[in-house]
Amino acid sequence: MGLDFAFAAFRQRISYAALISGDSDLCPAIEAAKNEGVITRLIHGPKGSFHNQLWSNVDERREITTEVFKKLRLENKKGNR
Predict the structure, then answer these.
(1) Which of 18, 25, 50, 75 is 20 to 30 Å from 65 at the Cα level?
(2) Which sequence spans correspond to the domains of the chain?
(3) What is the mean pLDDT of residues 57-69?
(4) pTM of model > 0.70
């Protein structure tokens, strides 16, 4: 996944990427993508569920919470009417 992410950045196929992960193995790919101008966002669980280096390397962060899921469910219900 990290290689696909980095290749997409090198080929200028992406300008923004949201990652759902906690694994520091993606840090080199994130750094490479950022060097290509890609804005990176980490979608993560509660503190302790992600590596600190991953947290530090991304541009934006958003925690997945119960409230986020509730909001997504409400938006989905409204869109299906």
Answers:
(1) 25
(2) 2-79
(3) 88
(4) yes
